[in-house]
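User: Could you go from structure to sequence for me? I need the amino acid at each position, not a summary. Structure tokens:
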């Protein structure tokens, strides 16, 4: 194990005014979680990064806690440069060897880019990712600007800690600097370029959100999983099925409301992320789930998928019973399940079959349900 200590700073103290977002953009939802949570997870999970410090604006503490829970943070300043300096100064008392400085506004950070930066730091004082300019460049009056050797600069930017701190501390107040690499370079140090990543595009304007969602969706892979459940039909119980209370002479019995259809879908969703089954998340032995509305089980499974950046594409549910007739309730079930999963009814299929009076369903002793869930999710 290396004795070199590397810390990451994420600057997230901006207001995101150009983004048109109701929340400061770094806390706005993107691909199922707050934008900041994406790069924080990537940095925190990297084996060469020892810790992550977030720099937020004054008054953004609650939004940070909602986005990431209890994580180390400091308060930044009125400009990006001031926010970076706040982060560096907070680390200075117990200075790491190396620091990566990253914009929260660049959410999709891969381990590969971090690897490239860390490798470059073995030989250089600093390194940053960049992409060559591919478009023709012109000035306002249409005069072409030669694009040879021009790059679009991204973050994280990686430095030996002492050098970047000194560059920030000595930077003239009135001098302009749009990133940290140019500050270190102007102190006379070599800062090298590593290959950037189109996924690291900065989110600045309103249209950047949908473009980022589309870039993220293109990286996802399809997964399917099935769920199956059975509950006993008894007299004296309400019948909850597919999220609806259905008039019937019997109801399903179980520890919760026994909505066998929602249970099958919940298990199918959990299956797509290989996260056990409904009994593991909501043990029948736990009294808090006695009589519980199964909608919360379904929504919990959906939230686990969203937390991994997954997208639910389709649910196919089959209810197996002799009675009640499902046809009259099909549209209501599709609408309710769609509402609970924040999908469109067109993404929910509800089918029903009898077993020709055979077996426990045929004798009306119970209802069975099976579901297949299809989602898209990242592979990392
Ligand atoms: N005072 C500031 C300003 C910006 N940033 C951070 O620097 C990154 C890049 O800045 P930018 O995209 O310009 O974000 P905002 O300043 O929030 O955007 P706007 O200028 O539209 O308000 C963002 O992660 C942002 O949160 C910061 O930490 N402190
Ligand atoms: C640091 C940066 O992301 C590198 O491209 C960029 O300079 C930030 O600029 P902003 O004007 O603070 O958004």
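Assistant: Here is the amino acid at each position, in order:
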């Amino acid at each position: 194990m290396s004795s070199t200590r590397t810390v990451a700073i994420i600057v997230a103290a901006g207001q995101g005014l150009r983004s048109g977002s109701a929340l400061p953009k770094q806390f706005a939802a993107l691909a199922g979680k707050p934008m900041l949570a994406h790069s924080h997870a990537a940095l925190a999970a990297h084996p060469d990064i020892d810790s992550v410090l977030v720099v937020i604006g004054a008054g953004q503490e609650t939004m940070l806690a909602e986005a990431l829970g209890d994580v180390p943070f400091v308060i930044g300043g009125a400009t990006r440069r001031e926010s970076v300096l706040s982060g560096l100064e907070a680390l200075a008392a117990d200075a790491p060897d190396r620091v990566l400085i990253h914009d929260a506004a660049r959410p999709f950070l891969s381990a590969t880019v971090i690897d490239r930066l860390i490798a470059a730091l073995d030989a250089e004082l600093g390194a940053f990712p960049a992409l060559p300019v591919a478009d023709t460049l012109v000035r306002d009056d249409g005069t072409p600007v030669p694009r040879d050797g021009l790059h679009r600069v991204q973050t994280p930017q990686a430095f030996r800690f002492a050098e970047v701190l000194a560059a920030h501390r000595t930077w003239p107040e009135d001098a302009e600097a749009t990133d940290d690499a140019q500050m270190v370079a102007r102190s006379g140090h070599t800062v090298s370029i590593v290959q950037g990543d189109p996924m690291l595009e900065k989110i600045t304007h309103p249209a950047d959100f949908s473009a980022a969602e589309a870039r993220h969706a293109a990286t996802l892979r399809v997964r399917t999983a099935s769920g199956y459940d059975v509950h006993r039909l008894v007299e004296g119980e309400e019948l909850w099925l597919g999220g609806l209370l259905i008039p019937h002479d019997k109801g399903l019995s179980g520890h919760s409301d026994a909505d066998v259809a929602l249970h099958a879908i919940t298990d199918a969703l959990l299956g797509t992320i290989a996260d056990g089954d409904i009994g593991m998340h909501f043990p029948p032995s736990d009294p808090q789930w006695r009589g519980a509305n199964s909608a919360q089980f379904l929504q919990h499974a959906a939230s686990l998928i969203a937390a991994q950046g997954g997208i639910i594409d389709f649910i196919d549910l089959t209810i197996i019973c002799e009675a009640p007739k499902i046809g009259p309730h099909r549209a209501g079930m599709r609408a309710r399940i769609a509402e609970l999963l924040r999908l469109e009814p067109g993404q929910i299929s509800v089918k029903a079959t009898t077993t020709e009076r055979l077996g426990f369903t045929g004798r009306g002793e119970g209802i069975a349900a099976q579901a297949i869930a299809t989602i898209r999710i990242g592979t990392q």
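One structural detail worth keeping in mind: The two ends are 23 Å apart (CA to CA).
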